[in-house]
């Protein structure tokens, strides 16, 4: 009898949950509630699967299995797109030269830079044997990151794997690593080799961190990358659906080859032309082709955060528009026969992220409007306040506490503070989803490059939280290659 009484009370509460709202608004709020509850369930599932990945990594560590044991079996090709990167390019390339792998090439794509990038790279070529500079010239230059990477992919096939000591190297044993011009790749990056010993793995994403986290804004960005990489990426690794990020992604060349498509000029390359989040796009298409995507617990790449809110909003608008662009990949993701139903459902929900964000933001604005116009008057109580706080803050709280594990009361309280910093940051940048949708609907595709900040030689932050299972917390130089316009007869040609 008591149980029936409790059930009646619960049903009555649910029935009256949105009483007083305009009739037309009630369905919108019910959809929002469904989205919130589904997000909580999704988060719980991913937390469980992430913990399993931690346990697996700890097991490998206990067995003293060296993740880099097979790195010499692979050729590591580091591709660095560079457009006016004079501030950071030397730092990035010099650090890539220090990556401890047996077989390596560094391909920097100078994408029509008009600052000192070209001169800096020319000087580096005299010092670094691994380095080759590909120079894109007008009108071929500055067409987008995808186009720059595709030129490097074509050069890799037509030159690096067609002559010299790496001639006829098996594409299944070539690992293409994308590093942004501000990237500082872990010198022990060869440890991702343990993932590629599985022949089904097409891509592995390293953990992304912010090295200049000296302000609340950059700290929040560091937390953001940490939460995403640790929970949402590691959680999907068990399914093989961890996606690729723009910086620090390792892709098997054979996997890239399998998704190569022609661009509007008829030139073939793996990266689809016009995608603002080319990393997300190619990661999904590799999964559709039958490859696994995984997240590394061993390797980190550090990059610059943005201290300008205006620059951050512009950057995230571009990223958000990219997530709207990949809506056309929802159907092939659902039809992917290589994934279990649970993985398809998770990927479907993941791809709906911008729509969910836009819907929940719309309902929140409506709530404030109804309160301001006194259309509804909530019955304030402690229970109501707790429920409201739970829905608003709990996901951020759980994400930060799970990602930044600290012992003791002090560590716990610091992380609670960080969680609220992250929560405020999330709401500050929330409007980008609407700005991005507007740009997508109006066909806007142009974007402004984010300027780099001056760096010090050793300014990485050293307090990166170690996640459970994270261990330890030669060819002659080539001349610069000019890549001519699309109608040229050859893809690349050496300068005289």
Automatic annotation (TrEMBL):
<feature type="transmembrane region" description="Helical">
    <location>
        <begin position="412"/>
        <end position="430"/>
    </location>
</feature>
<feature type="compositionally biased region" description="Low complexity">
    <location>
        <begin position="463"/>
        <end position="473"/>
    </location>
</feature>
<keyword id="KW-1133">Transmembrane helix</keyword>
<feature type="transmembrane region" description="Helical">
    <location>
        <begin position="382"/>
        <end position="403"/>
    </location>
</feature>
<dbReference type="Pfam" id="PF13641">
    <property type="entry name" value="Glyco_tranf_2_3"/>
</dbReference>
<keyword id="KW-0472">Membrane</keyword>
<keyword id="KW-0328">Glycosyltransferase</keyword>
<feature type="region of interest" description="Disordered">
    <location>
        <begin position="454"/>
        <end position="496"/>
    </location>
</feature>
<dbReference type="InterPro" id="IPR050321">
    <property type="entry name" value="Glycosyltr_2/OpgH_subfam"/>
</dbReference>
<protein>
    <submittedName>
        <fullName>Glycosyltransferase</fullName>
        <ecNumber>2.4.-.-</ecNumber>
    </submittedName>
</protein>
<dbReference type="InterPro" id="IPR029044">
    <property type="entry name" value="Nucleotide-diphossugar_trans"/>
</dbReference>
<keyword id="KW-0808">Transferase</keyword>
<keyword id="KW-0812">Transmembrane</keyword>
<feature type="transmembrane region" description="Helical">
    <location>
        <begin position="348"/>
        <end position="376"/>
    </location>
</feature>
<feature type="transmembrane region" description="Helical">
    <location>
        <begin position="29"/>
        <end position="48"/>
    </location>
</feature>
<dbReference type="GO" id="GO:0016757">
    <property type="term" value="F:glycosyltransferase activity"/>
</dbReference>
């Amino acid at each position: 009898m008591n149980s029936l009484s409790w059930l009646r009370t619960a049903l009555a509460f649910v029935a009256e949950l949105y009483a007083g709202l305009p009739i037309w608004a009630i369905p919108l709020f019910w959809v929002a509630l469904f989205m919130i509850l589904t997000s909580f369930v999704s988060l719980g599932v991913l937390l469980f699967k992430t913990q399993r990945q931690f346990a697996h990594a700890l097991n490998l560590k206990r067995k003293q299995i060296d993740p880099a044991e097979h790195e010499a079996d692979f050729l590591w090709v580091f591709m660095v797109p560079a457009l006016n990167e004079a501030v950071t390019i030397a730092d990035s390339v010099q650090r890539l030269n220090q990556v401890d792998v047996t077989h390596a090439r560094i391909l920097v794509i100078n994408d029509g830079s008009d600052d000192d990038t070209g001169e800096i790279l020319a000087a580096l070529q005299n010092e670094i044997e691994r380095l080759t500079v590909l120079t894109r010239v007008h009108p071929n230059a500055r067409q987008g990151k995808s186009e720059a990477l595709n030129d490097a992919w074509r050069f890799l096939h037509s030159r690096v794997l067609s002559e010299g000591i790496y001639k006829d190297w098996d594409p299944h044993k070539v690992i293409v690593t994308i590093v942004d011009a501000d990237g500082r790749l872990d010198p022990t990056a060869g440890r991702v080799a343990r993932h590629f010993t599985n022949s089904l793995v097409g891509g592995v994403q390293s953990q992304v961190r912010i090295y200049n986290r000296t302000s609340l804004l950059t700290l929040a960005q560091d937390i953001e990358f940490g939460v995403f990489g640790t929970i949402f990426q590691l959680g999907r690794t068990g399914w093989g659906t961890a996606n690729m990020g723009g910086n620090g992604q390792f892709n098997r060349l054979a996997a890239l080859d399998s998704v190569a498509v022609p661009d509007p000029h008829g030139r073939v390359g793996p990266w689809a032309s016009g995608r603002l989040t080319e990393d997300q796009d190619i990661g999904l298409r590799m999964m559709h082709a039958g490859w696994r995507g995984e997240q590394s617990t061993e390797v980190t790449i550090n990059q610059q955060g943005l201290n300008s809110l205006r620059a951050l909003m512009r950057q995230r608008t571009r990223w958000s528009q990219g997530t709207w662009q990949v809506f056309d990949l929802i159907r092939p993701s659902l039809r992917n026969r290589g994934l279990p139903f649970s993985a398809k459902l998770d990927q479907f929900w993941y791809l709906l992220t911008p729509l969910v964000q836009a819907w929940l933001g719309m309902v929140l604005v409506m709530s404030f409007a109804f309160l301001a116009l006194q259309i509804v008057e909530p019955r304030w109580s402690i229970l109501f306040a707790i429920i409201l706080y739970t829905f608003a803050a709990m996901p951020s709280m759980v994400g930060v506490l799970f990602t930044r594990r600290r012992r003791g009361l002090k560590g716990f309280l610091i992380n609670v503070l960080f969680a609220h910093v992250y929560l405020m940051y999330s709401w500050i940048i929330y409007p980008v989803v609407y700005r991005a949708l507007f740009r997508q609907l109006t066909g806007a595709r142009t974007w402004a490059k984010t300027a780099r900040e001056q760096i010090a030689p050793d300014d990485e932050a050293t307090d990166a939280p170690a996640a459970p299972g994270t261990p330890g917390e030669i060819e002659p130089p080539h001349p610069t290659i000019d890549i001519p316009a699309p109608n040229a007869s050859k893809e690349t040609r050496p300068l005289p």
